[in-house]
């Protein structure tokens, strides 16, 4: 379930809510009690990388496998420190 971010137009407090995508948006502010909550547009805090449906199924041509197009530095795997066996 996604976490939605809301802001109250009356008291300007922000609130996070874990909701189903099919749930109606919240309207009542838990801080001031007024019906002034609006959903904020915010970016997710993660990036999908590697192979998978999002990487292979909806891209075409040379845009496929974006993770493979980067240089072969230590950032190409999870350790990113250069000290593991995959870096050597």
Radius of gyration: 20 Å
The end-to-end span amounts to: 39 Å
Structural class: mainly beta
Order of helices and strands: EEEH
Q: Could you tell me the number of beta strands?
A: 3
Taken as a percent bin, the fraction of beta residues is 15-25%
Average of pLDDT: 74
Largest sheet: 3 strands, antiparallel
Question: Topology of this protein?
Answer:
Blueprint: E1 3-8, E2 14-18, E3 37-39, H1 53-56
Antiparallel strand pairs: 1-2, 1-3
Describe the overall structure:
With 88 residues, the protein is mostly beta strands. The chain has a domain at 3-39. Helix content is 5%, strand content 16%. The protein has one helix and three strands; from the N terminus they run βββα. It has one helix at residues 53-56, and strands at residues 3-8, 14-18, 37-39. A three-stranded antiparallel sheet has the order 2-1-3, with no helix packed on it. A hairpin with a 5-residue loop joins strand 1 (3-8) and strand 2. The protein starts with a strand and ends in a 32-residue tail after the last helix.
Describe the structure in brief.
The protein is mainly β.
Notable features of this structure?
88 residues; 16% strand; mainly beta; three-stranded antiparallel beta sheet
């Amino acid at each position: 379930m996604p976490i939605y971010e809301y802001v109250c137009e009356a008291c300007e407090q922000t609130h996070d809510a874990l909701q189903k995508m099919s749930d109606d948006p919240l309207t009542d502010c838990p801080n001031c009690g007024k019906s002034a909550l609006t959903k904020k547009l915010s970016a997710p805090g993660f990036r999908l990388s590697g192979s998978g449906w999002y990487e292979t199924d909806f891209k075409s041509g040379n845009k496929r496998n974006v993770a493979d197009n980067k240089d072969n530095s230590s950032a190409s795997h999870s350790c990113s420190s250069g000290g593991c066996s995959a870096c050597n």
